[in-house]
Amino acid sequence: MHIGFHFEKIHKEEITHTQIVRYAGASGDFNPIHTVVPFGEKAGLGGVIVHGMMIMGFIGQAIDTWCASNDLVKFSTRFQTITRPGESITVSGLIVGETEHLWVCQAEAVNEHGEIKASAHFEVRK
Amino acid sequence: MNNQYEKMIGMQLEPFTYKVELSKVRELALAIDKNQLSLQKKEDIPPTFPTVIDYWGSPYSIFDFLGLNLEKTLHGEQEFEYFGKIKVGDDITVHGEIEDTYSKSAMNFIVIKQRFVNQEGETVVIGRSTLIEKQ
Predict the structure, then answer these.
(1) Do A29 and B71 touch (CB under 8 A)?
(2) Which residue of A lies nearest to B63 if distances are taken between CA atoms?
């Protein structure tokens, strides 16, 4: 591990409407902009959009494969653009800094066209 | 721009308690990746699990509480700081407050801070959610 180190990319399967419904049930976030197509259309979103927290969940899954989960001390995600069913997400990450006890890292979730969906900052114990 | 949420800064939300069940932990892991269960050790709780505690444990909707329009509100940012570990079987009490609000580019930003405290009185996670309401 060193500054500039790139973690192995995680490629996720295409997001389906079924997965969104499943995520709604798991998380308890039943906001209809995620699950009810006519509501998403009425809101001007052109249909349903994926929960931002599902994308953060993908990044969290990647971090869990990169680092021991006990070592994670901070994890923040900024949602950049909306994601729709049918998109496929890849999560990448790298170490950008360090302190005496921590690695300071960044991660990004992008779709198959390279569009950034979410950018994350996380810190793990050395 | 008028930000009607300014007067809510510092407002405390009613605390609530949620018991962490293995089935909900597995359900979240499977919703994130349906192949994940075979990889997952029983004690591993996804780092975004506090969101389950929030939505399933809270007796009220933050949207209703703030009077936010579901059609015009998006989740802009989420942060978690981990001070301890949430474990299956824990009773987690959530203390929420409206920490900040500001307006820019014709949007209102509302920051909600949540402190997740286990049955030993230990703060295990602090979460911050930024909601964005479009005008």
Answers:
(1) no
(2) A31
Both tokens of residue B64? 């209703």
Which residue range forms the structural domain that includes residue B103? Answer: 6-134
Q: Which residue has the higher pLDDT, B122 or B67?
A: B122
DSSP string, B70-95: GGGEEEEEEEEEESS---TT-EEEEE
Alpha carbons A74 and B47: distance in angstroms, whole number: 10
Number of domains chain B is built from: 1
Q: How confident is the model at residue B40 (pLDDT cuts 50, 70, 90)?
A: low
**Entry pTM:** 0.95
Tell me: ipTM over 0.85: yes
**pLDDT-based confidence at residue B38 (cuts at 50, 70, 90):** low
Q: What are the structural domains of chain A?
A: 10-15+51-125 (3.10.129.10)
Residue B77 counted as domain residue: yes
CA distance B132 to chain A (A): 11
Helix, strand and coil percent figures for chain B, each rounded to 5: 25, 40, 35
Nearest to B31 among A26, A39, A70 (CB): A26
